[in-house]
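Sequence design from tokenized structure. All designs in this work follow the same two-part layout: the structure record, then the generated sequence. An example of the structure record is given first.
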């Protein structure tokens, strides 16, 4: 651990990938601000690392006032931020044909996955630009859906493609201020969101098939490596997936 403790914000920190990344950062000596909608889930994450410097801030990333409060807390407590993991997201209703998808469902996915990521990136960017020393790193949680969709996943897939544009724009606009931005695209990490993979999910040919998954800890290891690079180096895009999942080629 370095003499000066680094400061991270992780959204969606109450479960899954967010929890795993938060604990990996804490284990490496980072101070971590845990953001998520459910206070009790954040507390469960914090309880897994009782000796670490973890701060729970209940946050709905789709609400600008919540995001403002989150980064006000970071500024007041630490005075700076070194790393944001833009992880909060939702898949939305599964198995709904495109022509039947309610507007409310589309809007919820867009507000959480895309607008929420923008708001958090904006909050981190402002702090990183103003602090001394200047700079920091943002990593957006994309998905292999940023490259190839699943059937009946239009809202999720559209937002993950859009996140790639957000990543590229943040990378470009952050250059003058030593703000690096990268994206990790994850395929079939074993979390609550991917439980259905083990029961069988619809394939492009219409068949149901059980898909392999990987340990979410392997994703956390990758994010930690990306986060701890010096700001002079950046992993722009990384894809971490279950080796034999039906993604590359024809399955």
């Amino acid at each position: 651990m370095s003499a000066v403790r680094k400061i991270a914000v992780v959204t969606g920190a109450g479960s899954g990938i967010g929890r795993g990344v938060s604990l990996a950062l804490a284990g490496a000596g980072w101070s971590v601000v845990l953001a998520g909608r459910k206070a009790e889930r954040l507390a469960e994450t914090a309880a897994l690392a009782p000796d670490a410097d973890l701060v729970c801030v209940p946050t709905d990333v789709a609400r600008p006032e919540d995001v403002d409060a989150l980064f006000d807390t970071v500024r007041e407590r630490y005075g700076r931020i070194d790393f944001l993991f833009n992880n909060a997201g939702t898949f939305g209703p599964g198995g709904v044909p495109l022509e039947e998808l309610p507007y409310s469902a589309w809007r919820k996915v867009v507000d959480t996955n895309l607008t929420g990521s923008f708001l958090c990136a904006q909050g981190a960017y402002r702090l990183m630009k103003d602090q001394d020393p200047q700079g920091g790193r943002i990593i957006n949680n994309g998905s292999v859906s940023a490259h190839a969709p699943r059937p009946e996943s239009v809202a999720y897939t559209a937002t993950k493609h859009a996140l790639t544009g957000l990543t590229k724009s943040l990378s470009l606009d952050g250059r003058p201020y030593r703000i690096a931005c990268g994206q990790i695209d994850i395929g079939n990490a074993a979390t609550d969101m991917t439980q259905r993979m083990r029961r069988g999910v619809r394939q492009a040919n219409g068949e149901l098939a059980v898909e392999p998954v990987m340990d979410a800890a392997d994703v956390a290891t990758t994010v930690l490596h990306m986060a701890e690079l010096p700001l002079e180096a950046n992993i722009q895009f990384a894809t971490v997936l279950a080796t034999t999942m039906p993604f590359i080629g024809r399955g």
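The mean pLDDT is 93. We note this feature because it recurs in several other targets discussed in the main text.
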